[in-house]
Design brief:
Shape: elongated
Helix content: 10-25%
Distance between the termini: 77 Å
Strand content: 25-35%
Radius of gyration: 23 Å
Number of helices: 7
Order of helices and strands: EHHEEEEEHEEHEEEEEHHEEH
Length: 321
Amino acid sequence: MNLKTITIGTNDAGQRLDKFLIKSFPNLPKSMLYKSIRKKDIKCNGKRCENSTHLQIGDILTLYLKDDFFTDAEQTYDFLKAPVKLNIVYEDENLILLDKKPGLIVHPDENCHFDSLIARIQHYLYNKGEYKPSNELSFAPALINRIDRNTGGIVMAAKNADTLRILNEKVKKRELDKYYLCVVHGKMPKIQDTLKGYLEKNESQKRVYISKKSNAYTKSILTHYQVIEEKQNYSLLKIKLLTGRTHQIRAHMASIGHPLAGDGKYGTNQLNKTNRYPFQALYSYKLRFSFQTPAGILEYLNHQEFTIKDIWFLKDFLQFP
């Protein structure tokens, strides 16, 4: 048996005790974890604690457990295998805004184990000395939002736990305004409109379906569009997401007969033969922080706006006769 003492720092505060320990000690079985808390082999500030105890900065945990449970993971980090190439839109001590290019996944998947946007970010911060995994028990730099592999645009990454918590809450409360540019097939029936519908996700097919009626499996969606320009049989649209669901823009536009140019999933091969776009013509080009409630350490971001101008399909669209 061995006694280990842990002092809770900023990035670990605010978590439930059991959640924190599960992340910090992956070799510790959950059954043993809960038994140890119950038997007072795990204490907080020298006193008995509960699974649901919320940790505070400065709390001292004492763990009296077998040595095997404290074995450190081998100090090799997969993120170091990822390139460090990033297109940084904005960076400060709390967060980074990235311009993710089409073709790059945001998180590793079964087909791409090492190169992803989050791996590149962690590698970048590791090189800068801002992320030291050996000093962290349960936190790693993380993404606030995600976009599809073949969609480009602004992705937010948190450098610390407070930023991650605050911005996740802001996303839920819809206190971030996200704007997209896209090229769709055909001419829109109105110059601008707010589309309403219901989205159902099909996990096995890795796609979603839009309907006009709700059921137990659907979630409501709202998509506002504005026509910027029309060329031949294409329309350049500015879109504001009023809800943020999986594939919302792609599926919603296709459901009304105006699929995105280059979209192989929700468009058709016949339509896509008329353009030479390698990816769906969709870009998350603008982000505005519109906090309506307190934002803690991120209050300085309120009303700030960030815009990407280098959008791969714009020049091609504007060259249409």
